[in-house]
Design goal:
The protein is α/β, with parallel strands linked by helices and 132 residues long. The chain has two helices and 14 strands, in the order E-E-E-E-E-E-E-E-E-E-E-E-E-E-H-H. The longest helix has 14 residues.
Amino acid sequence: MASGSSTFSVIGSDVSIKGDISASADLHVDGTIEGDIKCASLVQGETSEVHGAVIAETARLAGRVVGSITARELVILKSARIEGDVHYDALTIEQGAAVDGRFSPNSQRQAAHAVSGPAADEAEEAALQLTN
């Protein structure tokens, strides 16, 4: 991303994507994604579905996510339905949101990485790939 520029991409409600998405800018998703998403900032609309892992600096989720979520700042809105583990630094959950998974701060994940090393990360990633 060019320095000083602020851009975002929109995936409309009529769009369905099969495959991973990587964006250096902000991403607004109203459609359906079957694959992993990695971006700076993610805003998910209420009608959106994501079947895959989400990795973002900030995420504001209002739709359905089936997969793990890793974000520095995470907001889960009341319309959100999440099936998967959630890793975060700062977390806000509105009353009414549904999450079926484990919550853990990123600091615990980093501490586990320091103790167990990269081999454990590779095993965890392989397990995630088998479940997705």
